[in-house]
Design goal:
Shape: globular
Number of strands: 20
Structural class: mainly beta
CATH class of the largest domain: Mainly Beta
Number of domains: 2
Radius of gyration: 20 Å
Largest sheet: 6 strands, antiparallel
Helix content: under 10%
């Protein structure tokens, strides 16, 4: 059940009849392709072209930073499953944060999400948005809605709330983002038209507790693709920097060469650990076999990516532009798909 089709109340855009991104109740899978979420599978898939030029990655902030010191007017959508208020505890910075208390006890599998909107303009062309979240470990999805200059609303996923306490999470602003990202409603021209504005926060229950509390602080738009934020959660558990092994470089195979994302996969996670001496970029291969740089890791950092059993990944060196081998349960490979539903597989990036 994802909030990709029901607009909030008191907005000028009429709601669509159903929530189109609801996975079946027994198995959490992304929704069947529709005009509002995932591209159709009958589009001819071209052979991917490998480029040796590393993507340009930056993270310079735009002036917009949304705090909760002045709370303003937040409006709840059609789903009456929560409240959003200004709170003094917990707070990440300043004196106030936003507290969202959800209760999905009366929700159905088709509408167990809640959305709160408060439009705020963002200048320039931000490529990502960051938010501090005080998590409850529920595993619910947290999505950010933005509205473009054409009145089209897009979902920007920040992942599942598997953590507790404060954590800064990032969502990539991408018209081709996999579910639960992508277009929500409004005019459909297939592109995000700038300038954009922040529209709202969405908590979307797939499974897990029906009642809980989350807090939010400091929402910031950034230009370019997001850089990894070094935190205690993103460093290997030993606390010791990871170094390149002294043994000869590993030789990778690529049994999945030419793989592209397809529909119908089930959700899971991959934790990428950078064991090289260089910055590396994680690359998702979309439905049209086009590479999309998603995040950057410095040496010793790690990143957990929420993905699907039908979505392939590469990792590339920023220094050389070369694809890097990954140690995985399938062996040492250049392209990896975690094909186990609901799992979190750790892969180690080597030189």
């Amino acid at each position: 059940p994802t909030a990709t089709s029901v607009p909030p109340t008191n907005t000028p855009i009429p709601p669509t009849p159903t929530a189109t991104s609801v996975p079946p109740t027994d198995t959490p899978v992304p929704p069947t392709p529709t005009a509002t979420s995932i591209p159709p599978t009958d589009t001819p898939v071209p052979t991917p072209t490998i480029t040796k030029t590393p993507p340009v990655v930056s993270a310079s902030p735009t002036p917009e930073s949304i705090s909760f010191e002045q709370f303003g007017s937040w409006k709840r959508g059609d789903q009456p499953y929560g409240t959003f208020t200004q709170s003094t505890n917990p707070v990440k910075e300043g004196s106030f944060a936003g507290k969202l208390e959800y209760d999905f006890s009366a929700a159905t599998p088709a509408d167990d999400f809640v959305v709160f909107t408060h439009p705020i303009a963002a200048s320039g062309k931000p490529g990502s948005v960051q938010i501090w979240v005080y998590g409850d470990g529920s595993g619910h999805f947290l999505n950010i809605w933005i509205e473009d200059a054409n009145g089209e609303v897009w979902s920007v996923p920040t992942g599942t709330i598997t953590y507790t306490g404060w954590k800064q999470v990032t969502g990539v602003i991408d018209a081709n983002a996999p579910w639960p990202g992508g277009r929500v409603y409004g005019p459909d021209n297939g592109t995000i038209d700038y300038p954009i504005r922040f529209l709202g926060l969405v908590v979307d229950r797939i499974d897990g507790p029906k009642i809980g509390t989350l807090s939010f602080d400091n929402i910031t738009f950034s230009t370019g693709a997001p850089l990894a934020t070094p935190t205690a959660a993103s460093v290997p558990s030993t606390g010791t920097p990871v170094t390149t092994p002294t043994s000869p470089p590993v030789v990778a195979s690529d049994p999945l060469a030419g793989a592209c994302s397809t529909d119908g996969g089930e959700s899971n996670d991959i934790t990428f650990v950078n064991a090289t001496n260089d910055n590396v970029t994680g690359i998702w291969i979309d439905w049209d076999c086009i590479e999309s740089g998603r995040w950057t890791l410095a040496p010793g950092e790690s990143h957990t990516e929420h993905t699907f059993t039908t979505h392939p990944w590469h990792v590339r060196s920023e220094a050389t532009g070369e694809y890097l081998p990954m140690e995985t349960p399938l062996g040492v490979v250049l392209t990896y798909i975690n094909d186990t539903p609901g799992s979190n597989v750790t892969v180690t990036i080597r030189q």
